[in-house]
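Late entry, nicotinamide-adenine-dinucleotide complex.
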Amino acid sequence: MNNSAITFPIPANEPVKSYLSGSPERVALEAELKRQSGIVVDIPIIIGGKEIRTGNTGKVTCPHDHKHVLATYYKVSEKEVQLAIETAMKAWQEWSRTPWTTRAAVALKMAELLATKYRPIMNAACMLGQSKNIYQAEIDSACETIDFFRYNVHYASKIYSMQPKNGAGNINHTEYRPLEGFVLAVTPFNFTSIASNLCMSPVLMGNVAIWKPSTTALLSNYYLMQLYKEAGLPDGVINFLPGSGALIGKVCTESKYFAGIHFTGSTATFKSLWGQACSNLDRYISYPRLVGETGGKDFIFVHPSADPKAVATAAFCGAYEYQGQKCSAASRMYIPKSMWPTVLEDIRCMAGEIKMGDVCDAGNYVNAVIDEASFDKCKSYIDFAEAASDAKVVLGGKCDKSVGWFVEPTIIETSNPQFKSMVEEIFGPVLTVYPYDDDKVEETVALCNETSPYGLTGAVFGRDRVAIEHLMDCLTYAAGNFYINDKPTGAVVGMQPFGGARASGTNDKAGGEFNLIRWITPRVVKETLVSPTDYRYSYMK
Ligand code: NAD
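Prediction complete; structure with ligand written out below:
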């Protein structure tokens, strides 16, 4: 019997470790990198805690060394997807009725395990499998994942404590029921933390999940499944289905128990899943919750009053950290013509100082893009710019796939504000810059607002604070996460809940109560203490 009113105050963010040479965390990480580099992991399908191996397999390779096989995995067929749905719905019977404080205890144990024993395991897997350097892995697969676990428990406690008032002779309360069905979590390659959160935020609220992990993030995602089990998550609450997204999406959206989708990835994929949910609407028990964070064409807008050094640093870090594969990465910049030569020179200096290569060499700032498709896409935009009359490549541009999927940090400068790479998402280390006439701020900010269909992140730079206020107003709907004098990346759980609108998603703000609220369906209960026994109005008596 648990009748305590447990509170979960706002937690602290997980500190980012420094990984100085010889530090305990560096020693542990290097040992784990060596261990994982020397084995080929066998990644099964996991349904109801049982490992399943089909005849249909695939390989997980290192993006920075694509001949290096890290794992073999097994792909689901329709049969396993159906089994996962049945299994999830069995697990739902108990998990949906489990006290929320028990679910919270499981999530908090996940955080503790990841902060300690699993930290080097997850970071090494993320480095090798997703080609992140030490720092980028630490802030993702350790710190942000831990923050999601801890903060969501706090936000859930706020939601559960929201209760209606009592009336004369009656008492009222709200039960925050989980959805009546399963949630399909479809996760991207670029953040282990997002993969974890897309499963765990519905699960914390009492739901069960079918998890379709990204094939290119399978290694770290498989270790997450081990972490969940060790933390005491019952079998069947999260079911792990590697394989074709199209197949899994189709079978899940045809099930009457489909209660929602928690998605992060490209706009096109989310739209196709939304369309499938619409066409199957008559099959469902309830209207499904469709939550998706999708693509972006994130901008930096520079006012003539800006500090050029700050702009150069933000453009460099915002565009090239994790090879520009953050959904928030700066990918187009509007800058006054008079300031551009100085800023370009600064960026060139920074680019000249960094190295690109294997994640195991800590001297490398930039690593590889995720796979051949991404490499080809980046190269095609660079080739297009090289051949164009209204653009030129002014930094980088070299691509080499002999060992890994390496694309140099690149800048395309264009005189055409509608140039292809000013409009379309590339998702790689390619920044397109449109230098504008210094006296055309108004016209250019209007272009910035209207050029791309997305609305994820954006930054404005300037020392004139009144001018910044005006730019913010012009760009009200251009970004769901907005930065003043800072790069448009690096949102932290508890500080900048994340998400964008327009074609960038449903903007339900991962890492906050707005997201958690999508995974519950409240029941409001009124209890009358003494029931009336006379139907007449008092003036009729
Ligand atoms: P993606 O759309 O290719 O894949 C995302 C997931 O969907 C993967 O698990 C994939 O296997 C699956 N999938 C692919 N086709 C499918 C289909 N037809 N039906 C069902 N599932 C399918 O995206 P990605 O390459 O993994 O990630 C990059 C994209 O994610 C970029 O567009 C980026 O902007 C976006 N992203 C957005 C945010 C955000 O918060 N807005 C965060 C991270 C990434």
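Residues 189 and 217 are 5 Å apart (CA to CA). Will revisit in the morning.
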